[in-house]
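Async update (no meeting this week)

Hi team, since we skipped the sync, here's where things stand on the single-chain job. The sequence we agreed to prioritize is pasted below, unchanged from the tracker. I ran it this morning and attached the output directly underneath so nobody has to dig for it. Comments welcome in thread, and please keep replies under the output.
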Amino acid sequence: MSQPATTGVPVLALEGVNKSFGAVRALRDVSLELFAGEAHALAGENGAGKSTLIKTLAGVHRPDSGRVLLDGEPVVFHGPAGARDVGIAVIYQEPTLFPDLSIAENIFMGRQPRRALGRIDHKAVRTSTAALMARLGVELDPDRPARGLSIADQQIVEIAKALSFDARVLIMDEPTAALTGSETARLFSVVETLRAEGAAVLFISHRLEEIFELCQRVTVLRDGRWVASEPLAGLTQDDLVRRMVGRDLAELYPKQDSRVGETALSVRRLTREGVFRDVSFDVRRGEIVALAGLVGAGRTEVAQAVFGVDRADAGEVRVGGSALRPGSPTAA
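Output:
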């Protein structure tokens, strides 16, 4: 993966920014630099100030003090439209498209090319959308309705919309939270395409392995304060966690001896046709059992069936040795 140049003037920067909401100081003297052609990670625990920083860059919030710099010049955004007009776009983990409009109509909503007598030039809209998808290396039919698109495809549509505004900075807020492994790989390929075209990408994720795979530099926030901005090369995940929480991971979650008791929850051959089948596990008193799997593997559905929200077609759930009545959250 090529390393972008991080010298010269950044495309977008924050300089000594402070932001408070009443007595809560969300950002305290925070600085950030985004350079053309780089994917820059923003890391921090929940409540570290990441969302406030994103909204400051996107024109939703104005700093109480400090400066936002665009190409080295101070700029004041009077709203999200002001940030969008200078090429800043935010891609959220759950896009908000118009479900009954096509992909092309969503991308050019309110900006459709016109023909004589003010009629929309649908051919031009479709052609422009196809060109954007080709630019991203993604095959999506411009005429396909947004309803029914996967979250991954909806994000691609949002990225294409950003490019239609000539976005120079893309802010991706937890974009992989609901994606499968293959969908994440496709998204990363799109990000690499954007980087190669000179875009600056700010990537926010709690998945540290993704940060190390995609990004070249990282800025860490802790309790609203800037902690570090540095290259990821040479860092480990433990180094990053230490900057995020202020102490070693072993100190944060020390290993403790526990006494494991009798079985508290027993699930045997739980099946819901077409969703999951033949699921069995035990949970004993004093232990933590993880239910793991990719998005769409059925984790949520199994949990709902165990709790009785959804009725299983076969199998048994026992608590303390007693069988639960199927499909009854009250009994659970």
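Quick observations from my side:
The longest strand covers residues 24-34.
Residues 12-97+149-251 form a domain with the Rossmann fold fold (CATH 3.40.50.300).
Reply here if anything looks off.
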